[in-house]
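Hey Z.,

So I finally got round to the octanoyl-coenzyme A thing we talked about over coffee. Here's the setup:
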Amino acid sequence: MTEPLILKQKQGCIGQITLNRPQKLNALSLPMLAELVATIREYDAATDVRAIVICGQARAFAAGADVGTLAQSGAIALYTSGFSEHWDQIAACQTPIIAAVQGYALGGGLELLMACDIIIAAPDAVFGLPETTLGIIPGAGATQRLTRTLGKSLAMEMVLAGRRLTATEACTQGLVSQITQAGEAVSTAMAVAERIAQAGPLATHMAKAALLASYDMPLTAGIKYERTLSALVAASEDRQAGLSALASKTRPIFHGR
Ligand code: CO8
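And the result:
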């Protein structure tokens, strides 16, 4: 029996996803990407899932898009199959996604991380974009997202000269939010997800949307957008529940409305 490419497990309000192609260092094939997107959509649509955690295996989060898939597909077939759109569909998820990284996060694997919201790294995590060494360029968002995260010079060095970042460098440069002890990336990501899950779900969705808008919008438009979302959340029952709980020193119960 063939192993599933994606393992999924719900733990309370957290939807956990494990990329499960360890013998190929989690190289992202078309079926694997399709399953990943379907699982994320399923969790995103479930009102009881408040955060999603994605992790890989011990040696790799994901060593890139499957080079076999790339080699076998002509340019037009690759384009019309929507291969690179899988990363956009992951980035479109409204529920916060926390990625836990051990080992390699290369090429499309790093682009997958950048479509997530929070990246937690084990000390052995390695981040790189080897595409130009293969005669191609990053095609799932890295030239845009990496530049916004790391700035021009370091992004250029990674894309053009194949520079890899260690976990410490990635954390110093703001790609990663924290480095854990060895073997604790997943449990730390779950703990972060747990804290997110306790917050108001409507507020979480709106805050994520506002934060992501800062990548796309000029400052004044972004601030207006934030103000609109803020007014919308202020009209929610969750806001009432949160403020009443604070006043009565109890835990708020949020319903996402
Ligand atoms: N695709 C397919 N198989 C892979 C990949 C990959 N990206 N990476 C590793 N594997 C496979 C290897 O072929 C090998 O399989 P097998 O045992 O059957 O030969 C197995 O994983 C283990 O790999 P290695 O034996 O090579 O392990 P090492 O420890 O010696 O090396 C490395 C680890 C350094 C990670 C090495 O495997 C490597 O360099 N891998 C390729 C990394 C790479 O180039 N990634 C970028 C791919 S291109 C990309 O991601 C573009 C995204 C753009 C998407 C949008 C397009 C439209």
